Each structure stands twice: as structure tokens, then as C-alpha cells.
Amino acid sequence: MSQPGEKNWKGPLLGITVLDFTRVLAGPSASLALADMGADVIKIEPPGTGDETRTFPPFKNNESHYYLSVNRGKKSIVIDLKSPEGVALVKELVVKSDILIENYRPGVMERLGLGYQTLKPLNPGLIYCAISGFGLSGPLKDRPSFDIVLQALSGALSVNGEPDGLPTKLGIPLGDLVGGINGPIGILSALYERSVTGVGRLIDVSLLDGMVGMLGYLAQLAFFTGEDPQRQGSQHPNLVPYGVFAAQDGSIIIACLTNSFWGRVCQAIGRPELECDERYNSLEKRREQRTVVNEIVTRFTEQHTVSYLIELFTELEVPHAPILGVQEALQQPQIQQRDMVVQVNHKTLGDIPIINRPIKFPESTQPTPSAPATLGEHTDFILQTVLNKSEQEINQLKLNKTVY
């Protein structure tokens, strides 16, 4: 087994096998995190189209951008789960695995004969993570969920958007991606517990629970005041100046979190006397005078270019940032230096750029992730190396249309 410090160390989850029954975004983002950590992730896909996102446009050489985005580092096997032979094959894989992740609606895996209570006797050490919109209990558990629905029901959508406009969906699909955060946290906790007890467990991850957990101080603000937090656009409910400010040729972010930063803002805009002005010299007073403070800052920023403001704010250590488009963000030196964009060789697309692992282990060098797999790309490999199937047995499984 590779150790930290060795070249091309796969990651701390080297030797851990994950059966991945996930599709679309919430589940695949969870199994992606485990693949990034070095786990061997076996993505089990249905015959035909496989994961639904393989059909989501736009395409390049019939490969979907969506599927490519969250399936790096995984292997793909196509198994017909509606056949008894397919279910039996999965059970063989369960015996060889450490973790199972699925994000079907509650009850689907049970109807397939692959629910936790069925599989637990086959592998008592199995960690079974069920990710769903509303969890395994509650009045909404059987309801389908989508990112925007989760944003709406969690309260997150109500606080996003301009004060005088309609609520606006978050640009990033956090309602789904929260499953990629909480799923791995639960799995890794259970993996540690298993190292002590030898026994796995069932993990219930609700995306709605996760979004409510993401409310953070906004929930506590509601508890304190008895009122709903309101939409502030890019501004902060309690901190001023904080948000987007117009410049001569665009706009820029300023984030004044403390009084010490307020002094730097005052110096930058050429109004040092405002630092001690009794109308603005505390967080509470600036919040009460939000409109006036923002107008003072804007009168300065709109007279200058973004590049000038960046240079000025950097020199005076005013927290700020330019607003980058996605392409510019991916090309900025910080991201390039951190190897967050890498080239991989895809079976049908050739060399393509993908996002790299977001978590680093400085003592070791992980290899570049493998490219997202084409549908069923590793069927033979998995049957041979994991289940020790002979060529004749594999051919028979294909003849029976159990695998593809």
C-alpha cells in the first residue's frame, strides 16, 4: 500500500471500494469526493442511457458536459438491476465493498432487492449511504426533489435576490451539492466507527436538512428577532459597506467586516475623517445608515476603473475582489498554481480540461484523476478484477443481457 510522501499516492482512502448507484448531481458529487480521496468507485449504471445526465446537452462527440463535471476518477459498469441475475451480481460486489451510495427515492432500492436490511447480512461492515431530497422519514419523503425546490423549502431562496425584486435561485445548485458535502462527512465518520467496531451502518442524508443547515446565522437571526431575514442582494444584513459597488468600467466587491477595515475604506476613498464620525463609527450605526454609507462609497468607486480600485484596495488592505466570469476565474493564477484545472485523456474526446480535486495533501503527490468513464467502459475490468469472473462467464452475462 502506498504511503503519504510516495509519488503518485492515490489518497487516504486507497483500498476502499465504493458501489455507486447515484445519478444526476447530489449523489454523484458525494461519490466524487470519495474518488478524489483515493477510493475505488464503481459506478453502476442501467442499460440504455446510463446516468440520466449522459443525455443532458450540450454535447461534444455525444458526451455530456454535465456528466463529465461530477464523474472523474470513477469506473463504469452497466448492470440490469431489473433482472434477478443483475441483482445477484450486485450482491457479489456488495460482499467485496466497503461503502454503498444511492440517491434514489426512498423505497426504490428495497423494491430492487438491494435495500440496507437485505444487504447488511451479506456484509455487516457495509456503510450504506442513502441520499434523498427529504430523507427516509417525514411527510415529504416520497416526494421528488429538485434543486430549486430545496432552495425554496429551506428558506434559502427567500433571502437571495435584490430587495425590490423577486427571490432568485442561487446560481450554484447548492440544494443538490449539499449532498456532496454531508454524504461524505457521514460516510467517513462511519468508516472511522467501523475501524473500532467492525460494523457498518445506514446513513440517511436529506438534502432539505442540508440546506436548512446551510442557513447558519440567518436561522439564528430569525430565532433572535422573530422575523424573516430579508433579501439584501449582494449586501450583508448586518455589515456595511459590504457588496457590489459600481466602478467606471464595471463593478467591484468590497467586504468591510470590522471597524478596522472601515478605517481602511475611509482612507481609500479619501474620507479619513469618517472613521471616527459618530454617525458611522460602529457596525450598528453603519447598518442604520446603510443607504448613506453605500452612497458615499459608490460616489468614489464609480469615478475609477476596476483595475485602479484593485491596486488601491490591495495597497491599503481593503477586503475586495473583482467579479470574474467562470472562464476568467478558471484561468486566474491562483487557480492555475493550485492545479485546479488539469488535462485528462478521455476515451472518446481525447485530451480535455476538467476540474481537479479541491482538497490537497501537501506531503504527497496524487496522480491526475482518471477521465470520466464512457458508459460501461469498465464492465469487463470490474468483473475480472473484483469478482474474478472468467472470460466465458463474462460472455455469458453479456449474452443474458445481465451486463453490457
UniProtKB/TrEMBL annotation:
Signal peptide: none annotated. Gene3D superfamilies: Crotonobetainyl-coa:carnitine coa-transferase, domain 1, formyl-coa transferase, domain 3. Keywords: Transferase. GO terms for molecular function: CoA-transferase activity. Pfam families: CoA_transf_3 (PF02515). The keyword Nuclease does not apply. It comes from the Bacteria. This is CaiB/BaiF CoA-transferase family protein. It comes from Halioxenophilus aromaticivorans.
